[in-house]
Amino acid sequence: MADSVGGVTGRVVRSVEWSNWGGTESAKLARVATPRNEAEVVDEIRRAAARGLRVKAIGAGHSFTGVAVTDGVQLRLGALTGVMSIDSTRGEATVRAGTPLHVLNEELAAFGCALPNLGDIDRQSLAGAIGTGTHGTGLRLTGLSAGVRALRIVLADGSVVECSPRHEPDLFQAARLGLGALGVVTEITVAVVPAFLLHAVERPESLGDVLAHADVSAEANDHFEFYWFPHTGRVLTKRNNRVPEGTASRPLPAWREKLDDDLLSNRFFELTNRVATRLPRTTGAINAVASRALSERQFTDSSHKVFVTAREVRFMESEWAFPRASLSDVLLELRQWVDTHDERISFPIECRVAAADDVWLSTAYERQSCYIAIHKYHRQQRGAYFDAFESIAVNHGGRPHWGKIHTRDADYLRGVYPRFDDFVAVRDRVDPERRFANPYLDRVLGA
Q1: Phi/psi class of residue 82: alpha, beta or left (left: φ > 0; alpha: ψ in -120 to 50)?
Q2: Which residues 6+ apart lie within 8 Å of 378 measured at CB?
Q3: What are the pLDDT digits (tens) for 127-155?
Q4: Contact 93, 87 (CB under 8 A)
Q5: Rounded average pLDDT per 10-residue block, the chain, 447 residues
Q6: Of the candidates 132, 230, 334, 372, which lies 20 to 30 Å from 32 by C-alpha distance?
Q7: 3-state secondary structure the chain
């Protein structure tokens, strides 16, 4: 039922069932609102406080954890979209928080700008991506949160604060990757660069060769990542590099893009996962075929078109960050577990690297990092796979991605994040009544 409640001008509905993109979290909401501007965000938060309801902002629902779950008021930020200003001299753009990354990429491109780095999915909102620590790959490039220059945030008392390194610096440092625990971010100023092209080289290789030269590959390329197909010794590698100014764009032919990215990577992959779910014993053979189905290809295109991969097959995911030198050890331990247990894994395992940064809750805080991500088809049982990976990760000092499946709590996380208590102190100051809390945040930050 849709209605207007007590003078609130945003669209409001009552008693809504909600689930996230991957189907790993669900909730029954007391109310949903779609505020059209910052003033309506303020109204919603104050109204929720008066009724004793908790509040959570939501973007695309692409996190696999309960970071955005609430039984109170869900603020859908889909109406707070668009680039507000671009300052090419300063290399920054101010953007409304609910802007989806795929919309932001196109709007920046229209002004000859781009984000310096991206992950491989662009369905998230900017605030959601920053708030959970979305990162890309590249040993000399940080994640999105490290590129935040300033932001506006509505706190639990309804006050609006502009924060930056010079104004409310502690709130700024915490809110750059705030987990939605501090307030509702409404505007973000992010670093941008002149639009650029990337030359992409993708090809199948052997796992042994890739691990033997992983450090060299990471250092020699702007962006290097690979996908290992469990139950095989095969990987798909991706090397993306900036090209000299004036280089012509040479995108994939339409037929090749359709074949690889639509038919093989999505439609055929959906079919093979359904088969593997019904007949698990076929998984190894399917992976062996899949690891060789995508042949080598090269192309040059706009950065965001190279970074982003269409992901239509739904899945659940866990991703952990480790010291860069741990990549081979962690992956080989995981491979040993897969090889010695009767669990069939149909999704490839993704491996990336990233630069160190200074964001308090960033998985790359003060260390060059490697990332290993595991997935399962959304129709499959989680099984022992995720628990086994987490056990390996903990033994290597891993930091779990905040938006992806893990079971760690505040006691563990305090030990792997040097500025954990600084973040909690900011939270205690700006949200003492825990207006923006939920069970996930109670676990990872403490109640």
Answers
A1: left
A2: 22, 23, 314, 315, 316
A3: 999 999 999 999 999 999 999 999 999 99
A4: yes
A5: 40 73 93 96 97 95 94 96 95 97 97 95 95 95 97 98 98 98 98 98 96 97 97 96 94 82 81 91 89 85 94 94 97 97 95 97 98 96 95 98 97 98 98 98 96
A6: 132
A7: CEECCCCCCCEEEEEEEEECCCCCCEEEEEEEEECCCHHHHHHHHHHHHHHCCCEEEECCCCCCCCCCCCCCEEEEHHHCCCEEEEECCCCEEEEECCCEHHHHHHHHHHCCEECCCCCCCCCCEHHHHHHHCCCCCECCCCCHHHHEEEEEEECCCCCEEEECCCCCHHHHHHHCCCCCCCCEEEEEEEECEECCEEEEEEEEEEHHHHHHCHHHHHHHCCEEEEEECCCCCEEEEEEEEECCCCCCCECCCHHHHHHHHHHHHHHHHHHHHHHHHHCHHHHHHHHHHHHHHCCCEEEEEEHHHHHCCCCCCCEEEEEEEEEHHHHHHHHHHHHHHHHHCCCCCCCCEEEEEECCECCCCCCCECCCEEEEEEEEECCCCCCCHHHHHHHHHHHCCCEECCCCCCCCCHHHHHHHCCCHHHHHHHHHHHCCCCCCCCHHHHHHHCC
Question: Which positions ≥6 away from 30 have C-beta within 8 Å?
Answer: 14, 15, 53, 71, 72, 73
Return the pLDDT at 8: 44
pLDDT at 158: 97
Rounded CA-CA distance 266/386 in Å is: 23
Place of tokens 């056990």: 391
Q: How many angstroms separate the CA atoms of 25 and 19, rounded?
A: 6
pLDDT at 4: 35
Report the pLDDT value the prediction gives residue 6, as an integer from 0 to 100.
37
Asked whether the CA dihedral 401, 405, 406, 409 is positive or negative, the reply is: positive
> How many C-beta neighbours within 10 Å does residue 138 have?
22
- Cβ pair 300, 250 in contact under 8 A: yes
Q: According to the model, what pLDDT value does residue 14 have?
A: 56
Tokens of 152: 């506006």
Backbone angles phi, psi at 233, to 5 degrees: -105, 25
Quickly tell me which residue has 């991500």 as its tokens: 373
Beta partners for 202?
A: 238, 297
Contact indicator for 100, 77 with CB cutoff of 8 Å: no
Cβ–Cβ under 8 Å, residues 354 and 372: no
- Supply the pLDDT for residue 2: 36
| Residue that has been written with the tokens 């995720």 in this structure | 386
Work out the angle at residue 368's Cα, subtended by the Cα atoms of residues 139 and 319, and round it to the nearest 5 degrees. Answer: 90
